Amino acid sequence: MSDGKRFLKQATQTDVAQAAGVSTATVSRVLNGSLLVRDEVRARVEAAISALGYIPHESARSLATRRSRALGAVIPTLNNAIFASGVNALEQAARERGYSLVISISNYDLDLEAVLVRQMIERGVDGLMLVGNDHTAAARALLATTRLRHICAWAWAEDAASPNIGFDNAAAMAEVVDHLVADGYRRIAMLAGPTAGNDRARDRVQGAVKRLAGHGLSLVNLIETPYSIREARAAAIPLLAARPDAVICGNDVIAFGVHFAAREAGLAIPDDIAITGFDDLTLTAELSPAITTVTVPAAEMGRLCAQHLIDAIETDTDPVSLRLDTRLVIRQTTRAASGAIGLP
Amino acid sequence: MSDGKRFLKQATQTDVAQAAGVSTATVSRVLNGSLLVRDEVRARVEAAISALGYIPHESARSLATRRSRALGAVIPTLNNAIFASGVNALEQAARERGYSLVISISNYDLDLEAVLVRQMIERGVDGLMLVGNDHTAAARALLATTRLRHICAWAWAEDAASPNIGFDNAAAMAEVVDHLVADGYRRIAMLAGPTAGNDRARDRVQGAVKRLAGHGLSLVNLIETPYSIREARAAAIPLLAARPDAVICGNDVIAFGVHFAAREAGLAIPDDIAITGFDDLTLTAELSPAITTVTVPAAEMGRLCAQHLIDAIETDTDPVSLRLDTRLVIRQTTRAASGAIGLP
DNA sequence: GTGAAAGCGCTAACAG
DNA sequence: CTGTTAGCGCTTTCAC
């Protein structure tokens, strides 16, 4: 008995067909909700299915239909709430449409990303979500020759090589700069994320630098740090040596680090030092002082990627780009726009 | 030309075989690293593969081998860093062994979980990670009849129906209680997570209640709240009405809420009120006062699940249970163990 | 070592 | 409406 179980074979469509006294084609029709099956026959087939505990074999189905009903996502990490939330939404939206999600993590390594893209293609995903617009030539070539439908999220560029569903990182940072300058801050420093192979981080720096230049200013200090509270906190020390009156952070995780470093250094926020983040993680609003940051539509990006990818797949079209909005949320780590330029 | 591309067909093993002047069997052997292929032939095949840009078709492979080289994970949410981190580690470890990861989110809904388990089976994953020991009869039946290898993580029970790789939630909470009592706290309340369909949350409550009873005490108040800072913060108000001198929180997210609520109420932590969390999220150490909490081996669980699942798959054995340790991390939201029992 | 042939479980024309 | 017949692309005996 336990031995019998060991070699137990899953019921197959053929078994169901025999049990119901029909052809496998009919079973397939019932499974796929085809309307051209008599109710009586349909009932018989459904009875056989549940009697046998039959479970369809998706690989076989994929092989026959050349469709996997699966989406893929290659992301830098799940250890940042902003990506976790995006993937969460992507999965929910995909599932609502009957698609599965296979994910892999690149750890911000573009060469690894290319390998992962290839594996996604092998797995036969029908659509793929990537993050950002920085990708290796190898990855691009793979995507191009296989014509795999894909969307690059978390970024938006006029001239992007692939469809983008995201936002303009540079523009968002420009808004931050305007706010800071309007508040009277002049000695502005930036603690950025690693810009190598990361167009989002790079755009944020460039966005800040260019807009500052427009105000006739430049960064009094610019340092890059990994996305970790601890490392950002450590990097804040040398950064603060330039005696900035405001620090623009590459994202909220970095802002947390600077926040704690400033507190430790006995600096008053926002009077001695202003701090801005990016992402609007839940906790930015709860810390005191609450962090001024930029709201990023992470869940919406995930949801939209799923929907647009699936629409494109099912209508046999190409996904299109979508530019989403960010919003500056002014809280307590920057002064309210009172100390405007030119006040006595 | 653009029209030609539209109907472009992926190179198949047959194409490679023809190009290399060998049989598909030989191509297959090369692909799978079989040793019984002459070097000269192998080279010819490899040349053809890269010349044609051939990419193997995993569905076809899975159909033929009855193996998918994919793992599945069904988790409650990705919007909690502790699960995100576990999945992140699971993916990394799986990938190292050549396995893909397909994930789905149950939103703490056990009926949905059962549906997702079924989809995982359809997809043909070779192994599955679930969270906790609470599952519907339907899910259990599916797992049992298909004999799908699986591990239930985040929990550990002597009599678990499935292999567990996790920790004893009740024991961890008992340790929290001991610490609190040794510190002199007596009016202890608990803000728990939703216990319905969640054995981890239930075990944490039971672990606290039983250990308190051992000390001749009982909770002065017990309320459940969703795992959200905002809702926990709101729930803390009625909870504090019982005038507890310590609040045990179901996890760190809830602890954040209580932390902010206490601060808002003007209570001094830990003198007016002690707070304990669970999970040891990064920020618990950085807030001030830093939160006393329980370290949970999330990444390790993910990694071990992948390894043990894959070992079991490849050696054709069943995965076994592993009990991991948690550790109480005493920080600043509880008094140091000075006010021990019986002091004047 | 290598090729031929038979499927893996399912869907998709095509008849009837 | 339903059955028959071919495959989808790959692996796997079994001969040679």
What is the number of strand segments of chain A?
12
Main sheet strand line-up of chain A: 2-1-3-4-5-11
Low-confidence stretches of chain A: 1-7, 339-344
Number of helices of chain A: 13
Terminal residue distance of chain A: 91 Å
Quaternary state of this entry equals homodimer
Q: Which CATH architecture of the largest domain in chain A? A: 3-Layer(aba) Sandwich
What does this protein structure show overall?
The structure is a homodimer of 344-residue chains. With 344 residues, chain A is an alpha/beta fold. Chain A has three domains: 5-56, lambda repressor-like DNA-binding domains (434 Repressor (Amino-terminal Domain), Orthogonal Bundle); 68-167 and 298-324, Rossmann fold; 169-296, Response regulator (Rossmann fold). Helices cover 45% and strands 14% of the residues of chain A. Chain A has 13 helices and twelve strands. The first copy, chain A, is elongated. The termini of chain A are far apart. Mean pLDDT of chain A is 94; it is low at 1-7 and 339-344. At the A-B interface, helix 5, helix 6, strand 2, helix 7 and helix 12 of A face helix 5, helix 6, strand 2, helix 7 and helix 12 of B. Strand 2 (100-105) of chain A pairs antiparallel with strand 2 of chain B. The first copy, chain A, binds a DNA duplex (16 and 16 nucleotides) through residues 12-14, 22-29, 31-32, 36-38, 41, 56-66.
